[in-house]
C-alpha cells in the first residue's frame, strides 16, 4: 500500500495482517449490529434529497445552529409540523 493512511496514520503491513487475522477469527454479529446510525422512528430512515436555494439553506443552517440541532433534525421537525405527524 503506497501512502495509505487512516486519520493521518500510515497503514502498515503489520496492521493489515492483524486486521486480516481478526476477520478470519470472526466477528460478533450482535456487537456489529449495534454500530452505525441510530434508527429514526420505527426503523431505518430513507434518504430524501431536496434542493434548496441559497437563502433558504442559510436560514435553515442559522435556525438549526440557534436550536442546537443538526440540519437533518431541523428538516425532520419542519416536516413533522407541516404533516402533523408526531
Detailed description of the structure:
The chain is elongated. The protein has helices at 13-25, 29-33, 54-67, 71-83, and strands at residues 5-6, 9-10. It has one domain. The chain is mostly helical and 86 residues long. 52% of the residues lie in helices and 5% in strands. A hairpin with a 2-residue loop joins β1 (5-6) and β2 (9-10). A two-stranded antiparallel ribbon has the order 1-2.
Question: What keyword list fits this structure?
Answer:
4 helices, 52% helix, two-stranded antiparallel sheet, 86 residues, 5% strand, mainly alpha
Strand share of the residues? under 5%
- Unreliable runs: none
- How does the overall form come out from the CA principal axes? elongated
Helix run count: 4
> Which series of helices and strands comes N to C?
EEHHHH
Helix-residue proportion: 40-55%
Main sheet specs: 2 strands, antiparallel
Strand tally, please? Answer: 2
Radius of gyration: 21 Å
> Which structural class do you get from the secondary structure elements?
mainly alpha
Describe the SSE topology.
Elements: E1 5-6, E2 9-10, H1 13-25, H2 29-33, H3 54-67, H4 71-83
Antiparallel strand pairs: 1-2
Helix pairs in contact: 3-4
Quickly describe the structure:
By secondary structure, this protein is mostly helical. It has one domain (5-83). It has helices spanning 13-25, 29-33, 54-67, 71-83, and strands spanning 5-6, 9-10.
Amino acid at each position: 500500500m503506497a501512502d495509505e493512511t487512516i486519520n493521518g496514520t500510515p497503514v502498515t503491513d503489520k496492521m493489515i495482517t492483524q486486521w486480516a487475522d481478526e476477520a478470519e477469527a470472526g466477528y460478533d454479529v450482535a456487537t456489529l449490529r449495534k454500530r452505525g446510525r441510530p434508527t429514526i422512528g420505527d426503523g431505518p430512515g430513507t434518504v430524501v434529497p431536496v434542493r434548496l436555494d441559497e437563502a433558504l439553506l442559510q436560514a435553515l443552517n442559522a435556525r438549526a445552529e440557534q436550536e442546537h440541532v443538526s440540519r437533518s433534525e431541523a428538516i425532520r421537525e419542519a416536516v413533522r409540523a407541516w404533516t402533523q405527524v408526531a
